[in-house]
Design goal:
This protein is mainly beta. It contains 1 helix and 8 strands. The longest helix is centred in the N-terminal third of the chain and has 15 residues.
Length: 129
């Protein structure tokens, strides 16, 4: 009986491990000054499991075009590094490095940072959650 209980408990813990990941919706703004998207707003569906970040983005550009991409990265304290892949605007090799804003207070739940892309310049991302 004890052996059956231990096996059942171990199985339940293994199956629920992914449920322990923190799922969040972030409100995100992309702002750029050079070519491509000048501005886009939308949401990131973010999963954080330990220090690993994954998810997807659903944005709308200032011209009304839908922009989607996948997220994959990591966090170290309040510093984030996220690769944005499969962007529907054809920007390639985009990596966002985000952090808490300077002078953030205990009520602030947001990040800001620069994105660098291969051959396409970069832009700024602001995220609130």
């Amino acid at each position: 009986m004890t052996k059956l209980t231990l096996i059942t408990t171990a199985t339940l813990v293994a199956m629920s491990a992914s449920a322990l990941a923190d799922s969040q919706i972030w409100n995100v703004t992309e702002e750029g000054s050079s070519g491509g998207i000048k501005s886009a707003q939308g949401q990131w569906s973010v999963n954080i499991d330990d220090n690993k970040i994954s998810g997807s983005a659903n944005m709308q550009s200032d011209k009304g075009n839908i922009l989607t991409y996948t997220l994959d990265g990591s966090k170290n304290g309040s510093d984030y590094s996220v690769t944005m892949s499969k962007r529907t605007d054809d920007k390639n090799g985009c990596v966002w490095t985000g952090h808490s804003p300077v002078n953030a207070d205990s009520k602030s739940h947001g990040l800001i940072g620069q994105v660098r892309c291969d051959h396409n310049g970069g832009f700024t991302i602001r995220a609130g959650f």
